[in-house]
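ligand=zinc ion
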Amino acid sequence: MFPWIESVRSQMQESFERNRFHHAQLIHGLVGVGKTALVQSLSEDLLCTNSSTLASCGQCKSCLLLRAQNHPDLLHLMAESGSIGVDEVRALNEFVFHSAQQGGNKVVVIEQIEKMTESAANALLKTLEEPAAKRYILMTCNDISKVKATVLSRCNQVRVAVTDGTAAKQWLAMKGISSEAHLWADNFANQPLLLEQWSSQGIMPEVDYLWKVAHDIASISDINALESSLAKGTNLYTVFTRFLISAVKQQLVAGQINFVQYHNCTQQVEKYMSDHHKILGINKLLSLSNLVFGIQRVLRQD
Ligand SMILES: [Zn+2]
């Protein structure tokens, strides 16, 4: 397990040993902090038929079935096409109701619970409220503010975050990712798995490039190059806009621009962000050039 998650994990183990482990756990935190890995290992621990301490043995039939991704007492729900619907939750309720095939616990994992529709969330309430014995529901979410209050109040909320920045940096350094090599890396120090993912996808050079463009925005003219770089990874545009905001903020702090200019720049960024989901093809390029030239105009004003 990742070093920054160890303390959360041992707290959960402790509550399990004291018979205080809640049957519905909602694990929340930023993208790239290790929530999925945590629920994965918790499901192993809960399904292991050889352990009573929330620590899987890795050898029993249950553990081997899990490793083969073939455990009949584990149900995994994830928003494939944008949302988790009521039919999926009804299937979940059915799954929880039937007895376990391996004779132990049954576990349901729901990833990104904030993507549950209103009716799906309502269908889940009864199962959350009246837990059957030996049933566990492990949920993750990136944004707890989007989870319905009725669901929240029926779960134990566990926040996962990088609290020990040094441990995360060391972990990243072992993967060859450092702020010496990538000036922007510290901006994402609290999302280490996101950086690891970019590294394994080979898009670190793109992020380096976006960082440079954001800090050089006053002299950028090749919008095509920028757009093709943004197209190389999902959500790279949010990374770019984050870099842009931080670059203009630096200029504000350094007294190179005034507050009105800063405000106008952030408005350009917000407009670009809100347009991004609605438009396709050539319009994406237009929207990006509006952003870049719009910010350049603002920066030239005095
Ligand atoms: Zn086991």
